[in-house]
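Changelog note: in this version the structure field was regenerated for every chain. One regenerated record is shown below for reference.
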Amino acid sequence: MGCNSSKGVSETSSTTGSVKRTKCGTHLKKPEDLVHWPEFPKGCKSLVSKHLTKEIWEKYHDKSDACGVSFKTCVFSGCQNVDSGIGCYAGSADSYVTFSDFFDRIVQEYHTHGPTDKHVSNMDASSLQCPPFSAEEAALIKSTRIRVGRNLAEFPLGPGITNEQRDSIMASVLAACNGFEGELAGKFYSLDSLTPEEQK
């Protein structure tokens, strides 16, 4: 079963032996298009193509994490974009737990951080070993960008977040930023409210 390729649509499924497969590529439009175990084109080097084994697919393909983000959503990007380097995104912090047999392999290979390794966190800025910028270098800095969305535990990550949740994150971050004092004080600029002059 597949689409009519004469109409400019790629074949969407195949059968290898008795195993049905969904062909990967840009013809996929939504995670639900991954009906069968994804089949990546020859030469695909993404980590998702390497670690999305038949066993992993069968274990997780119909599961969702605690935030309701499906496994198919987590792997969809790499199935649609077969030139990806990694090709998967956790839908929430819980994706790493619920889909651990898959994500542990990805994290191990990409970050060389195993499932039993411990992350060491040190928030003491005085421990940083970085010399101050020269006056010339410091003059080049106009702004600093800080990504905080992945640090808010009560929200899903990018693939699983709704617009309403994005607005809630913005409100939480804005409230936190407005409480900064001293050298941390500044102005919060929302991307959707920047003027052309502020965007420069």
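Spot check on this record: The chain has two domains: 10-111, 143-199. The helical segments are 47-51, 54-60, 71-80, 95-98, 100-111, 135-140, 163-178, 196-199.
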